[in-house]
Design goal:
Blueprint: H1 21-28, E1 32-36, E2 39-42, H2 44-63, E3 67-68, E4 74-76, H3 77-83, H4 85-88, E5 94-97, E6 103-106, H5 111-121, E7 130-139, E8 154-164, H6 167-187, E9 192-196, E10 206-213, E11 219-224, H7 242-253, E12 257-259, H8 265-268, E13 276-291, H9 295-298, E14 301-303, E15 309-311, E16 313-320, H10 321-331, E17 333-334, E18 337-338, E19 349-353, H11 359-374, E20 379-382, H12 388-398, E21 402-406, H13 408-411, E22 416-420, E23 426-429, H14 431-443
Parallel strand pairs: 3-7, 19-20, 19-21
Antiparallel strand pairs: 1-2, 4-6, 5-6, 7-8, 8-16, 9-10, 10-13, 11-12, 11-13, 13-16, 14-15, 17-18, 21-22, 22-23
Helix pairs in contact: 1-10, 2-6, 2-10, 6-7, 11-14
The chain binds adenosine-5'-triphosphate (ATP) and magnesium ion (MG).
Adenosine-5'-triphosphate binds next to strand 8, strand 13, strand 16 and helix 10.
């Protein structure tokens, strides 16, 4: 993309309404525009990161064997009357009447609807296990929408639903989600710690939240420092291997890490003092196993191999896709702007032409642009007439992890400068070497 042809409406001033850094930078970098409290338009660069996050979620769900579907945002109230949640859910549910006076709602979550799909189509244990998921907009009429996309009213969520014959199978599905989520967040450059949680209105016995440590997080968290050092990395996972999957879950949930809802002071005190940490975290996902909570009242029943009819065992598993943009920025920024992790960056590198209009620098930039594109990388080329300082400031604000700077002096010796946004370190090299380096870096972030 050439900046002169892009739509990147950056703001010079700090927007007064933004209280936290991610909200401030998302507005300043022209990623989102608020349309009403907690409701946002996604401008091109914001949308690019959102799509990138969705893609990682899809890839990791596919790896775990889960199947995508898409349900509507609008739901009939009658489904929710079956589960009893139409009355229970309260003011967060946006209720709407259609022209025929039928009660509708904008879905805050989809347990009822997926249970309806299941009961209409599945009747035998032979069709299990089954995990269906979607990435779809949700609406929750939050009392206090704030912090930009972190607590919106309309927000994008990945919600997955598991269907199993037995509790044991259902718990395996739960564990499979935990492992898939661990890799999902790691690919986004995040450390998201699974913490035992209290079940909310969705209900359930087994539930963990995934928290990203950040001082602006809404949850208070208590943890053993060692938990932050755990990494799944690229180890091979066989999602059908129950022992392996359970082993990974144990590895990530044995070290103490809890939110204030489930915190146990006596257990916490057993951690050696120098490793005890109290901080704040952003909830970026949650997994639940709730058994027959919906299948029983809604009649989602399967026939077992012995001919018995039993309600299916269910769980639901969510990732806050749009909230993740805020969480990633909270975890990765400096006073100049965002620092995108390679896994989610909207463009893999920026190209800054220090002397636009100079035939040598112009053609060197064009050649770099073509070479990176040919390698499947997408550069953002600042081909505007702005002065160098302004170009650098903009690149720093939008946070591309790598920048190639092309100036007449370096070019005279066939050199460009490759700069790492995170460390600020620069290295001079030939344009070919810069391209090769970026190809190598991004090979580790498919
Ligand atoms: P919270 O406690 O933050 O209100 P929740 O526990 O009600 O969230 P879940 O039902 O677990 O949310 O939804 C799954 C994920 O969706 C959450 O982990 C969170 O990342 C995201 N999410 C929930 N509410 C919002 C919101 N208002 N804006 C953006 N993302 C949200
Ligand atoms: Mg939650």
């Amino acid at each position: 993309m050439r900046l002169s042809r892009y739509f990147l409406p950056v703001l010079k001033e700090n927007p007064a309404e933004a209280q936290i850094v991610s909200h401030r930078y998302m507005l300043r970098a022209g990623m989102i525009k608020q349309q009403a409290a907690g409701i946002y338009s996604w401008l091109p660069m914001g949308l690019k990161v959102l799509r990138r996050i969705e893609q990682i979620v899809h890839e990791e769900q596919a790896r775990a064997g889960h199947i995508p579907v898409l349900m509507p945002t609008m739901q009939p109230a009658d489904l929710w009357r079956e589960s009893g949640r139409y009355d229970d859910y309260g003011a967060e549910m946006l209720r709407i009447k259609d022209r025929h006076e039928r009660d509708m709602l904008f879905g805050p979550t989809n347990e009822e609807m997926i249970t309806d799909i299941f009961r209409a189509n599945v009747s035998s244990y032979k069709q299990l296990p089954l995990t269906l998921y979607q990435i779809q907009w949700k609406f929750r009429d939050e009392v206090r929408p704030r912090f930009g996309v972190m607590r919106g009213r309309e927000f994008l969520m990945k919600d997955g639903y598991t269907f199993d014959l037995t509790v044991e199978d259902g718990l395996h599905a739960y564990n499979r989600h935990m492992v898939a989520y661990l890799r999902t967040y790691e690919r986004m450059g995040l450390t998201a710690i699974p913490m035992r949680a209290d079940s909310g209105p969705i209900g359930g016995d087994d539930t963990h939240e995934f928290l990203v440590l950040a001082s602006t997080g809404e949850s208070e968290v208590f943890y053993d420092q060692q938990v932050t050092e755990l990494k799944l990395g690229d180890r091979a996972v066989d999602f059908d291997d129950r022992a392996q999957v359970k082993g990974i879950c144990d590895e990530f949930t044995t070290v103490y890490a809890r939110t204030d809802e489930t915190h146990d002071a006596a257990l916490f005190d057993q951690i050696p003092e120098e490793r005890r940490r109290v901080g704040r975290g952003i909830e970026v996902g949650q997994i639940f196993f709730f058994g027959t909570k919906y299948s029983e009242p809604m009649g989602a029943v399967v026939v077992t191999d012995k001919g018995e009819r039993v309600p299916v065992q269910m769980g639901s598993h969510g990732i806050g896709v749009s909230r993740l943009l805020g969480a990633i920025i909270e975890a990765s920024h400096d006073d100049k702007g965002i620092i995108w992790p390679e896994g989610v960056t909207p463009f893999q590198a920026g190209i800054v032409n220090l002397k636009q209009g100079d035939s040598a620098t112009d053609s060197a930039c064009e050649a770099l642009y073509a070479a990176l594109t040919a390698k499947g990388l997408e550069p953002l080329y600042d081909d505007t007439d702005e002065r160098a300082g302004a170009k650098f400031a903009k690149m720093d604000l939008i946070g591309l992890p790598w920048r190639i700077t092309v100036g007449p002096r370096g070019l005279a010796q066939n050199k460009v400068e490759l700069t790492c946004r995170r460390t600020g370190e620069s290295e001079e090299m030939s344009p070919e070497a810069a391209v090769a380096r970026l190809v190598e870096i991004y090979a580790a972030h498919p």
